[in-house]
Design goal:
5 strands; two-stranded antiparallel sheet; single chain; alpha+beta; globular
Amino acid sequence: LQCVGLLTAGFAQANEALVRAGMRDWLHQPYRARVCELLPRLLPLAEETGVLGVVLSGAGPSVLVLLGGGGDAAIEPQLRRRIEGTVAEILPLRANASGLEAWSGGIQLW
């Protein structure tokens, strides 16, 4: 519950340090990493500059890599290398006050 509070406060205050702290999951992800091949490949990115967190999305198999301002250009090549050999694809989303917008597919999620 502490992480939820940090994550909520981080988004409300636009504070990347709080968001980063709120994105950490020590309880569930170590167990889920055994059955989701992308999670162990992508979790190390959480320590990279510009990355606010890497988490399993729902029950999986999707993995969310949350980037801070301007982090996408530097991280995308690393993401592509880490998912090489899998059936995964990268779907970049940009958050704004209205919702999420997918840049690559022209999809808007509200």
